[in-house]
Amino acid sequence: MNDEMSPDDSWALETLAIRAGHRRTHEQEHGEPIFPTSSFVYGSAAEAARKFGGEERGNVYSRFTNPTVHTFERRLAALEGGERCVATSSGMAAILSTVLALLQAGDEIVASRSLFGSTVSLFDKYFGKLGIATRYVELSDLAAWEAAITPRTRLLFAETPSNPLSEVVDIAALAEIAHRHEALLAIDNCFLTPALQKPLALGADLVIHSATKYLDGQGRAVGGAVVGRNKELEEVFGVVRTCGPCLSPFNAWIFTKGLETLSLRMRAHCENAQALAEWLQAHPAVARVHYSGLAEHPQHGLARRQQSGFGAVLGFEVKGGREAAWSVIDATRMLSITGNLGDVKTTITHPATTTHGRLSQPQKEAAGIGEGLIRVAVGLEAIEDIRSDLARGLDALI
Ligand SMILES: *Cc1c(COP(=O)(O)O)cnc(C)c1O
C-alpha cells in the first residue's frame, strides 16, 4: 500500500468506504488523523505568496481547506461516484451553498412537494427574498415536473424516497427532463445514502447530503456535503470558502469513520425496517403501511430497480386519528420520541403535529399527512424489542 490511497477503479463500495480518501502523512499513521488547526504555515515568503495567489496548491486556512475535511470529501466522492465533494457545516448549508453557487435572481427551482421542512423554508423564505422562486410538484408525477419548468428554471430538486410516505421518483427519467430543458438535477440522497442509491450514475448532476443522518449513523454530529462534477463543485467550493459554512475537522473525522460501516449499517437498517413493515401490515390496528419494500407499495417496482435497498424510514396509519396515534407513541418505552433519523436508535414521531405541523389542513391532505400517521425511522436494536415496544400501544387499540 502506498501513501496515496487513491481509489482503485475496481474497488467495491465497501472497500472505498474504508480505504478511499486518506493520504497518509510522514508519521505513517494507520488511522485517519484529525488536523485541528485554523491555519497552515509556509516555508518562505515566496511560498506564502504563491499559495495565496493560487499559483501553488496547498492548505492556507481551514475555512478553505483542511486535510481531515478533505479525507471525508474524497471518501464520499468515491462512494457517490462523483468527481468532487465539498463538505459543509450541515445538510441545510449544503443546499444553501449549492443554490447560492449555481443560481441567481430571476432563476427558478422546481422541487418535489414532500421535502424536508427546513428545505421548504429555505426555498420559500430565503431564496424567495433573493428573487429565486420555487414551484412544487408531486414527486412521482414526471408530467407535472415537466409542466412546471419555464425558460427560467435552472434547478430541479428532489428527495427520493420521500419522508414519511416513501414515494419514489424515476431519477433517470427526471434527469432526462432536466437536461432537455438545460436545468440541473439535484437529489437529496440523505435517506438512502450511496450504499443504497447512486443518483449520479442515474444521470443526476448533484447529490446533496445531510451527513448528520446515516453517514454518521450514530447521531453524534451535524454536517453536510455536495457531490458532483468539478465544474459545478468549484462554484460550490467558492461559496463555502467565502461565505463560511465549512465543516469542522472534528466532525469530518466522525463522518469519515461513520462511512466505514455505512454499507453494513444500511443493510441492517433495511432488514429491520422490512421486518417491521411486514409485521405492522399484518397488525389489526394498522390501516396502512407506507414502505417501498412492500409489494403493495405503488412504486415497489421502480424502487427495486433504482435502489439496492428500501431504506429505514416508514410511515403507518392507525385507525382512530390523532388520539390513537398519540396513544401508540406514548405507550413506547424504548423508542425515542424525536424528529431525528439516521441513528442506530429507533425514533418515532407524529408528522401531522411535528415535522409537518406548520402545513395548513389542505396542504397536509395534499401531502398525505393524516392525523393517524406515525413515522418510524428504524434503528438497529433487536427487531423483537422494537416490535414489542410498538405492540404495547397497538394491541390496546383493538
Ligand atoms: C436532516 C435533513 C436535511 C438537513 O440536514 P441538517 O444536517 O439537519 O442541516 C436535509 N434533507 C433531508 C432529507 C434531511 O433529512
Summary, kept brief:
It is built from 15 helices and 12 strands. The chain has 398 residues and is an alpha/beta fold. Helix 4 packs across helix 9 (230-243).
Describe the structure.
The protein is α/β, with parallel strands linked by helices and 398 residues long. It is globular. The chain starts with 12 loop residues before the first helix and ends with a helix. The longest helix has 21 residues, at 262-282. α1 (13-19) runs antiparallel to α3, α3 packs parallel to α10 (249-260) and α4 (91-102) runs parallel beside α5. The strands form two sheets. Strands 1-7-6-5-4-2-3 form a seven-stranded mixed β-sheet, with helices on both faces. Strands 8-9-12-11-10 form a five-stranded mixed β-sheet. Helices cover 40% and strands 15% of the residues. The chain has helices at residues 13-19, 45-53, 67-80, 91-102, 117-129, 142-148, 171-180, 193-196, 230-243, 249-260, 262-282, 300-306, 321-330, 361-367, 383-396; strands at 84-88, 108-112, 133-137, 153-159, 184-188, 206-210, 224-228, 286-290, 313-318, 336-337, 347-349, 373-377. The chain has two domains: 13-259, 3-Layer(aba) Sandwich (Aspartate Aminotransferase, domain 2), CATH 3.40.640.10; 262-397, Aspartate Aminotransferase, domain 1. The model has no long low-confidence stretch (mean pLDDT 95). The chain binds pyridoxal-5'-phosphate. Pyridoxal-5'-phosphate binds at residues 90-92, 116, 118-119, 159, 188, 190, 210, 212-213, 222, 224.
